[in-house]
Design goal:
This protein has 353 residues and is of the alpha/beta class. It has helices spanning 141-151, 158-161, 170-173, 196-204, 243-254, 264-272, 312-321, 323-335, and strands at 27-32, 35-40, 53-57, 59-61, 65-73, 80-93, 99-104, 114-117, 121-129, 132-137, 181-184, 208-214, 237-241, 259-262, 282-286, 301-305, 346-350. It has a 9-stranded mixed beta sheet with strand order 2-1-17-16-14-3-12-13-15, covered by helices on one side. It has a 6-stranded antiparallel β-barrel with strand order 5-6-7-10-9-8.
Length: 353
């Protein structure tokens, strides 16, 4: 399919720059059979049944955005002094101890360049591949993470940081209610609408929760560039689903209850774990790319935010509900002025195509 099929006009004013407060006061669009319903996120229990299972991603965002300066030598003294401003969005650590990062601006970086962050962290560029680079840092393990926690920034998407600076509130706003396992460099944004109040209402109705972990990577920020969606490659992300979570999913299925993936990350991981046709405990790096025609083995519903045009996440939505239904949903959302992207509103998509 052509990437242009997944294009639509997104007015800039609809891109949410901050979350609503409280977070569960966001809006909720429900697509069920041939109906689209406008509601609030606090109405979510009304659209779910007793025994339905919500599968949430418990990954926790760490301050993975490092901002520093490329070091250069003075011609006479050979003393290193700060040069160009460089930001590195940490993604994942490689087996050799280096880190894969999204660098900005990449045109300023060369192999063997050294970038200093704060007073303690230095990174040497050892490999460059397009927007990606591999970096060898002078610190490892707990020492490295301690310094990153001290000087790192919340890794907000560019469509937010281009409009405003990072705020102290982002440290909690850009963190899921379910966040427990540190490792994500971007939030599983479908979970950002949950708070204690809405979780309590769901539990009171008999709606169940189970957790998995998928550490969202920096690749989630990258646009699709291939004209044909079949030529796009998904960046791998580490995930794990336990036997306990699998058992809860199988129990829901056996009782004819719906399994609702909270977010595209949860959806991709449960479907990765079910490639054999039956879900099993699984751990590893998934690069599952869900496109129209994909056979879903687990998910009966998807709770997700509204995504960018021409993005792999929008392609996933089209695979789940059908291309024409996706277009109808997004046309409605724009016309009704829903808030889009990470800090935006939510949608509950039921009865996949």
């Amino acid at each position: 399919m052509d990437l242009n099929y997944f294009d639509y006009e997104l007015p800039v004013r609809l891109i949410a720059q901050n979350p609503v407060n409280p977070r569960s006061s966001s809006r909720l669009l429900i697509s069920h059979m041939n109906r689209i319903v406008d509601a609030g996120f606090t109405d979510l229990p009304s659209f779910l049944n007793e025994g339905d299972l919500l599968v949430v991603n418990n990954t926790k965002v760490f301050p993975a955005l490092l901002v520093g300066h490329k070091m250069k030598s003075e011609p006479i003294s050979a003393v290193k002094v700060p040069g160009a401003r460089i930001s590195l969005n940490l993604d994942s650590q490689n087996r050799d101890g280096t880190w894969s990062c999204l660098g900005k601006p990449m045109k300023k970086l060369r192999i063997d360049d050294v970038v200093r962050f704060g007073m303690s962290i230095e990174g040497k560029i050892v490999r460059i591949d397009g927007r990606w680079c591999e970096v060898a840092f002078n610190l490892q393990g707990e020492d490295f993470f301690r310094e990153v926690q001290a000087i790192g920034h919340t890794p907000l998407p560019g469509y937010i940081t281009a409009k405003r600076p990072e705020l102290p509130a982002d440290q909690t706003d850009y963190q899921s209610y379910f966040a427990r396992q540190t490792g994500a460099v971007a939030a599983p944004t479908a979970s950002l609408h949950f708070d204690e109040k809405i979780v309590s209402k769901l539990l009171q109705k008999g709606i169940k929760f189970t957790e998995l972990t998928l550490h969202v990577g920096a690749g989630t920020f990258l646009p699709m560039t291939s004209e044909r969606i079949s030529d796009h490659k998904i960046h791998g992300e580490w995930g794990s689903i336990t036997q306990s979570a699998v058992d809860e999913i199988l129990t829901a299925k056996r009782k004819n209850k719906r399994v609702i993936a909270v977010g595209t990350t949860s959806l991709r991981l449960i479907e990765t774990a079910a490639r054999s046709g039956r879900i099993e405990a699984w751990e590893g790096v998934t690069d599952l790319y869900i496109t129209p025609g994909f056979a879903f083995n687990v998910a009966d519903g998807l709770l997700t935010n509204f995504h960018l045009p021409k993005s792999s996440l929008l392609v996933l939505v089209a695979a789940f509900v059908g291309g024409e239904k996706m277009k109808e949903i997004y046309h409605h959302a724009v016309n009704e002025e829903y808030r889009f992207l990470s800090y935006g509103d939510s949608s509950l998509l039921l009865n996949p195509a």
